[in-house]
Amino acid sequence: MSLSVAIIGSGPAAFYTADALVKSDNDCRIDIIERLPCPYGLIRFGVAPDHEKTKNVMRAFAKTAAHEDVNYYGNVEVGRDIGLNEIREMYDAVVLAVGAGSDRAVGIPGEDKKGVFGSATFVNWYNGHPDRRDLNPDLNVGAAVVLGNGNVAIDVARVLVKTPAEMAATDLPDYAAQPIQNAPLTDVYMVGRRGPNEAKYTNVELREMGHLENCVPQIDAAQLPESVEGEMSDRDRRLAKKNLATVREFVDRNADEKPKRVHFVYYAQPVEILGDDRVTGVRFERTEVRDGRAVGLGEFFEIPCGLVIAAIGYISRPVADTPFDERGGIVENDDGRVDTGLYAVGWIKRGPSGVIGTNKPDGKLAAEQIFTDHGAGGGKSGRAALEALLAERGVRAVNLSEWQTIEAAEIANAREGAPRKKFVSVAEMLAALG
Length: 434
Ligand SMILES: Cc1cc2nc3c(=O)[nH]c(=O)nc-3n(C[C@H](O)[C@H](O)[C@H](O)COP(=O)(O)OP(=O)(O)OC[C@H]3O[C@@H](n4cnc5c(N)ncnc54)[C@H](O)[C@@H]3O)c2cc1C
Hints:
Radius of gyration: 23 Å
Number of strands: 19
Strand content: 15-25%
Number of helices: 15
Shape: globular
CATH topology of the largest domain: Rossmann fold
Helix content: 25-40%
CATH class of the largest domain: Alpha Beta
CATH architecture of the largest domain: 3-Layer(aba) Sandwich
Distance between the termini: 37 Å
Bound molecules: flavin-adenine dinucleotide
Largest sheet: 6 strands, mixed
């Protein structure tokens, strides 16, 4: 009898796992269970709308989804429609691939004020996630602060300042495009606790900030270190050197060259969000880096702004019936093994770091662990039991061909040049199925 494997979630980690399983010589059937009708996790709801090429990996994942040994069950949420323990009873092996979809708190006074958002929330909003489409942020502001020094911070800053023409060939939903593009925003401050050498953004994303149609990067030369120093891997050193060279090019850019500016501010940690009900600014403490850590220097300054996006990290929500590491924001696991027959991959396993491809080794390892632990054969009924239970509970699962119908409608509805027009609610997706 073939081995029955359930994968919970349908982001990169889930698909890399499914791919490793189907490419093995073992006989197994894989069911991917996703809470939304649409697959692909943060590829759809995280990756910036103007970076469509990054999403090309969806094509490879679509092939895996169409493999004869793989079934897709969209619109089925584990914890809502079916319990994890129920799935574990049905399947020989269960892989948690639920990602890290929540914002890590900044942990400073005032972060609950209006106009302060975590990047998970804000990015989901401009990417048309059904949970966040009603966020309705007030973008009637002249200045915004983006906390963080990684690619997500750069994505947010860039999406806020790009012109309608620059965003025309994207799937940015109209409800987000209008307030973003009508906003009187002229200045975005990207503030990092440490310096350019420690910044986590990749060089391509950083360089792009120097080539925007309506926006010029600004940087204070005094903030730039002479060279790249300190303990780091060769790879990190190469990246840091490239980044330092890029930010040096930004130093002489004229502030009036274009109507908008993105200010790169380093060595500053937020200590308080200012304002009454709404944010009016952020108070920062200057820092210096000691042994790789930002240490406060007791000198303070403020940046007035009407919008704050904290791009400082993501955490997973605890998964019911599994041990959870609250501090790390991940499921407790021993290199992916959570419990007998239960595995974790991707951000729920490792925390929120790395690019799409970083999840690939997790999938390969989980497949190896599953075959090591279970041998080639399985004994549980898997798919038949799942389908019976979903039918009994009246759960409207979306299968692969139905998702393909939804996707085809999104492509057909796209404005010229755009890849798709996303349906932004579950009801709209289901309505597309007639
Ligand atoms: C804003 C942002 C931008 C990014 N941009 C890039 C980029 O440009 N290039 C790049 O290489 N990487 C990028 N990344 C990183 C990349 O997206 C991640 O490495 C990757 O998505 C993590 O994969 P995952 O499968 O662990 O999680 P996710 O992609 O988050 O997938 C988790 C899936 O599980 C589902 N799920 C959650 N709970 C349940 C449940 N209870 N039941 C069923 N399903 C559930 C979710 O709906 C989701 O589909 C970006 C990340 C972010 C946050």
